[in-house]
Design a protein that fits this description.
This protein is mostly helical and about 170 residues long. About 70% of the residues lie in helices and about 5% in strands. It contains 6 helices and 2 strands. Strands 1-2 form a two-stranded parallel ribbon. The chain is rod-shaped and about 85 Å long.
């Protein structure tokens, strides 16, 4: 009976080991920092964003100047002139808000630009990770950079450099 129990325990351990899953980590921040195309795309997005923000700021400043002028002139204006100036200020503020939404809104130009520049890079990384996963038999690959819930991870299972090598970047 004792031998049967020992044999069944041994079989369970062997079975559990054969079903063991392999895991790996990647550090997306590290990978992205080592891809020149990503750095160039980020810089391009920053430049475009600054340019568009300057346009929005200029319109907002125009609205503020109109408002300040209105406040200083209000006592000298007729009701009709006041209404006209107020409408002018509101129109300028609305124009600034619409431009801001056009550039920076959820479906704005910056979102579209980011998508067009970053998606190919992200797809390339995803494909490299998937290829490594398939070739090395990983069941799961986590992103260390997002580290939600990862308290400790052995550096031995970090395959970030392998991903970079697969993409043609050595580090």
């Amino acid at each position: 009976m004792k031998k049967l129990f020992t044999l069944s325990c041994l079989l369970m351990i062997v079975g559990a080991q054969s079903m063991a899953q392999k895991f790996a980590l990647v550090d997306m921040e590290y990978i992205l920092k080592n891809i020149p195309a990503y750095e160039r795309a980020s810089e391009q997005l920053n430049q475009v964003s600054k340019k568009w923000q300057a346009e929005v700021d200029a319109l907002t400043e125009e609205a503020q100047v109109l408002y300040k002028n209105y406040q200083s002139e209000a006592v000298f204006l007729s009701t009709e002139q006041k209404t006209k100036k107020e409408e002018e200020i509101v129109a300028k503020e609305k124009e600034a808000a619409e431009l801001k939404k056009k550039y920076f809104g959820p479906e704005g130009e910056l979102f579209k630009k980011r998508e067009s520049l970053m998606a190919p890079i992200q797809d390339e990384i995803y494909n490299a990770v998937k290829d490594l996963s398939d070739s090395k038999g990983y069941s799961l690959i986590l992103d260390r950079a997002s580290d939600t819930g990862i308290i400790f991870a052995s550096p031995k299972i970090d395959i970030s450099n392998e991903v970079l090598a697969k993409l043609g970047y050595s580090n």
